[in-house]
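I'm stuck. Protein, please.
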Amino acid sequence: MARYQIILAYDGTGFLGSQRQASSRTVQSELEKALRKLAWQGQTVYLAGRTDTGTHASGQVAAFDLDWTHDLQDLQDALNAHLPRDMAVWEVKAAADNFHPRFDASSRCYRYRLFCASVRDPLRERYAWRVWPAVTDLAALALIWPGRHDFAAFGTPPRSGGSTVRTVISAGWQQHGDEWIFEIRADAFLYRMVRRLVYAQVAVGQTRLSAKTLLQALDEQSEVGQAARSQIPASLAPASGLTLVEVRYDDLV
């Protein structure tokens, strides 16, 4: 019996999120179904992070224990043969017996894609958020997020009463024609944090909210910060534009 670490990609459109749920199609349940066809006897696979309904991944990390007597390429091929078409294993490697993809992660990176258009685009909207009126000057807003801040205005902790302080390592917007791409890396994220951050920045880009309010909302302890927090929109950017692109384990040998 050995522990394996895989990189998993999936189109989140047809999944009710990543975590196993009773009577619902999820990423975890489909991966476990494929593993059982390989004589897997485990109770659960471990994921690096939870993704919402409709959210995609190109770099989700999973781990499981399996009695496998063939090489790693054979395991990858076998898993892909049994997974549905909207999932794929891109890499398989042996892991330490105590490796945990969530608790051992040093950072995670998400990418959000949007485009500005006045008319619906059914093909693009499967993987991006159509925004109208068009946004401007998003690039400067990314400078607000790096550092250690209280992000309570932009998400909720995974556990009730948990800390809302997170360290953002890097953040940036890039524009390509009518498309904007936001990429953010942090030590961890609050529940729905990226989608809240994106929606709030779009509100600034459409002049419905000020950049100063975003900055002030990170200071939860002051009266100014609490007032700013009340102005942050509760709405979320659609899940279809979000992709988990990478999980790093920098502290592991």
